[in-house]
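Allow me, if you will, to draw on your knowledge of protein folds for a short while. I have a record of one protein: its chain in single-letter code and its fold written as discrete structure tokens. The full record is reproduced below for your convenience:
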Amino acid sequence: LHIGFEDDLAGILGIDYHEEVVAAIEAGDGERARRAIVRDIEEGATHILGQVKFPEMRH
């Protein structure tokens, strides 16, 4: 099984909310930290799934 990508996925580096997560945790703001974590995961997944080329499934 070979899965290819449209680019080298370097664009995912622009999706990074880790500093916001840490700042929210340091401020004791769990809800803001949760939102930043969710946003990081969702945007990262969207980016990767937008780039991947899955092979045709053959039975």
Remarks:
- The helical segments are 18-26, 30-51.
- Residues 4-53 form one domain.
